[in-house]
Prior knowledge:
The chain is an alpha/beta fold. It has helices at 13-25, 40-43, 61-72, 84-97, 209-218, 226-230, 261-267, 284-287, 296-311, and strands at 2-3, 6-7, 10-11, 30-34, 49-53, 77-81, 101-105, 107-111, 114-121, 126-133, 138-142, 161-163, 194-198, 221-224, 251-255, 272-277, 290-293. It has a five-stranded parallel beta sheet. A four-stranded parallel beta sheet has the order 1-4-5-12, covered by helices on one side. It has a three-stranded parallel beta sheet with strand order 6-11-7, with helices on both faces. Strand 15, helix 7 and strand 16 (272-277) form a beta-alpha-beta unit. The radius of gyration is 21 Å and the shape is globular. The chain binds flavin-adenine dinucleotide. Flavin-adenine dinucleotide (FAD) binds at residues 199-201, 225-228, 239-244, 256-258, 260, 262-263, 266, 276-279, 282, 295-297. Flavin-adenine dinucleotide is lined by residues 199-201, 225-228, 239-244, 256-258, 260, 262-263, 266, 276-279, 282, 295-297.
Amino acid sequence: LIVTETKDTQLKKTALEAISLCAQLEIPCDVAVMGALPPPEDLSVGAEQVLTFPKENSAPPAEIAASLIQTLEPYTVCLLAGSFWGKDLAARLMAQTQIPLFQDLVHVSREANAFRLKKPLYAGKVTAVFEIPMHQKMLWTLRPNAFSITCQKGSGPMPPIQKRTSWVPAPTREQLIKTEAGESTRPDLSEASIIISGGRSLKNRENFKILWDLADVLGATVGASRAAVDAGYAPHAMQVGQTGKTVSPTLYIACGISGAIQHLAGMKTSKTIVAINSDPEAPIFKKADYGVVGDLFEIVPKLTQKLRELHS
Ligand SMILES: Cc1cc2nc3c(=O)[nH]c(=O)nc-3n(C[C@H](O)[C@H](O)[C@H](O)COP(=O)(O)OP(=O)(O)OC[C@H]3O[C@@H](n4cnc5c(N)ncnc54)[C@H](O)[C@@H]3O)c2cc1C
């Protein structure tokens, strides 16, 4: 069972990543959707059945967990996105069902009658590998962007829809008052394919504009180090790292970021890392695929200009 997240009634990328993983593992999957049904092409991606629930993803997590528990019964594996929402929900499901939970998986394969699961530990210093018999009930959360999307929207038949009308109003002291959109209209950081991040060296909030300009040309979104967030240059929602978001984009451009272990923990699984730093000894260069030694205030606008010329 894949418990999906939606945004504006569209399935999020993380749901397609989970569906693609099931296809690669050759295991059939059903999809659970909270609230309004996504458009048919979003659902025609290879799932056998769609289960709908009466409330949206924004319902209190305690209620979602309580309402999902009965549904989990016939399934061996329940997959969720490794987003804040998915990790929170998965932990609640584990606590209430005692089903083992594997959070933040970055790789899953099939070995004879077992699943081989990989997840980073200790801020990415080591990778833990688990081999679990396929018949064992499990909960998985998948790190966003760590799994490629191989299924195509609208490529399969529309699966049957099963409406779950019961909703468990679990005892909770949480109450959703209202939902406010964040400052950014860009893709969520943990799902973005290209991220340009800035550090303390940006010096103020206004200077982040040079990163946004580059992001506009590349169709990217902007992240920040904790030092930049603590200094008030960027909101916490933009923080990448151990105490921020974990990202795995195709391209990560670190501008004026030293490469502290806690920052690397959040971005080192990026496919290609580019670092721009004035200090040739900065630790970020050890992780970077491409490094530019120089002043970001000179290099970033030049890069933006060059890319604009190429795109025009
Ligand atoms: C428990 C804990 C959790 C943490 N969690 C996180 C986390 O989630 N995310 C995170 O990022 N950090 C986290 N940190 C903080 C982390 O240890 C670092 O302090 C932080 O990442 C440093 O941010 P920075 O690279 O922007 O700043 P600095 O370390 O100050 O680095 C600035 C870099 O900019 C370069 N520079 C300066 N001027 C220029 C210029 N003009 N052009 C180009 N380069 C320039 C410098 O050479 C330097 O390398 C955590 C720390 C702790 C203890």
